[in-house]
Design a protein that fits this description.
The two termini are about 35 Å apart. This protein folds into 2 domains: about 110 residues, Cobalt-precorrin-4 Transmethylase, domain 1, CATH 3.40.1010; about 120 residues, Methyltransferase, Cobalt-precorrin-4 Transmethylase, Domain 2 (2-Layer Sandwich), CATH 3.30.950.10. The longest helix is centred in the middle third of the chain and has 11 residues. The chain is an alpha/beta fold.
Length: about 240
């Protein structure tokens, strides 16, 4: 639960920047960007979105990509330092802070430090990608449930709470975030635990931006179809009928 503002301390807003298109920022996110003393942003936040911050704002890069960088902290120490100095900080995160955005961990650290904070939701990548690709995540005649899962744990180096066999037993839509780097392994895992190789699947990279790429195939064909796609571009996979 957010801590109420305290005039003796700064304030941190964990703000979702949406999936990429600046036009998908919420009104509240834009208000906070324009008023912030500091904008501490993820690596995936585009220059176009950063340009919306007020001229007074310090722009502080604190995000990591592909697991690179320091991992000993939940919230970047520079964010804590500026908040403790009395500044209003927007911690700008791609997508939504609470969907694979580590917003929960950062909120815990802020609460432990006694720093006032609030969470401002953003459009998550799954919603933006599906809408811009014209793929409904639910459909009255086909599926009435959606599951979001991370593709980062496929090599077993990260602990996972995902029950993959349970996911594939249903007919619902599955969205795998962060699936690009090990796409083949992620899709192979689905087939190993029971999903048909002929299950439709769509690979969406750089969703909602001018560089968006959509490739439609099946669990069996998608790895070959995406062989020439830039593997560093943020991407997700939508699986289902």
């Amino acid at each position: 639960m957010p801590i109420e503002p305290d005039t003796r301390k700064g304030m941190v807003y964990l703000v979702g920047a949406g999936p990429g298109d600046p036009g998908l920022l919420t009104v509240r996110a834009l208000e906070l960007l324009r008023a912030a003393d500091v904008v501490a942003y993820d690596a995936l936040v585009s220059p176009a979105i950063l340009s919306l911050a007020g001229p007074q704002a310090e722009r502080l890069p604190v995000g990591r990509r592909h697991g690179r960088g320091v991992t000993s902290y939940r919230l970047h120490p520079e964010v804590l330092a500026r908040a403790k100095a009395g500044h209003t900080v927007v911690r700008l995160k791609a997508g939504d802070p609470l969907i694979f955005g580590r917003g929960g961990e950062e909120a815990e650290e802020l609460a432990e430090a006694g720093i006032p904070f609030a969470i401002v939701p953003g459009i998550s990548a799954a919603l933006g990608a599906a809408a811009y690709a014209g793929i409904p995540l639910t459909h009255r005649l086909h599926t009435s449930d959606v599951t979001f899962a991370s593709g980062h744990d496929v090599d077993g180096s990260h602990s996972s709470f995902t029950e993959w066999p349970r996911i594939v037993t249903g007919k619902g839509t599955l969205v795998i975030y962060m699936a690009a780097k090990k796409l083949s392994s992620n899709l192979q895992r689905l087939m190993q635990v029971g999903r048909s190789a002929e299950t439709p699947a769509a690979y969406i990279a750089s969703a909602t931006t001018t560089g968006q790429k959509v490739i439609v195939g099946t669990l069996a064909t998608l790895p070959e179809q995406t062989r020439d796609v830039d593997p560093t571009a943020p991407a997700l996979v939508i699986v289902g009928n």
